[in-house]
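Sample intake sheet
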Amino acid sequence: MTVSRESSKKLLDTYIESENLQKHCFMVAEAMQAYAESLEKDKTEIEEWWTAGLLHDLDWEKYPDEHPNKAVNEILPQAGYSESVINAVKAHAPERTGKKPETEIERYLFACDELSGFMNAVSLMRPNGFSDMKVKSVRKKLKDKRFAENVPRDDIYQGAELIDKSLADHIQFLISVFGK
């Protein structure tokens, strides 16, 4: 059984107050849904991909030192989330959980997380946000180590590799998702 979107949104509201972090979670959920649809996943899988994206940082605000272990060991299992969603959340932070991204949902969540956050930062520096964003402007900002310096560039590059896409194609796909 899949937990409803409404229930997932309520759970997110329970654990995350920060508007920026909520926005990030919704962006990753959108990216995951778009990729699931592009891969022609069935309705249930599309929902799981969206849910994994939405809840991947569920415990970040209240339990930063335990992230994402608090969510994957206590919060999500008790709330009835699937093993697929829980493992994807676990695999988006392999350095904290020891779980490397292996399945498709795990690899795509890893690939979408940091890049979505980085691209949001780029959009905030632009007068038109995502609407006229170009791949080259994102790549240029990636090379500037002082811009969004807390975003691990290696994770962004590794993410594109994990989903067998060039970084340019991955960025372009996300521009099309966020620029709607």
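Comment: The mean pLDDT is 97. DSSP finds ten helices and no strands in the chain.
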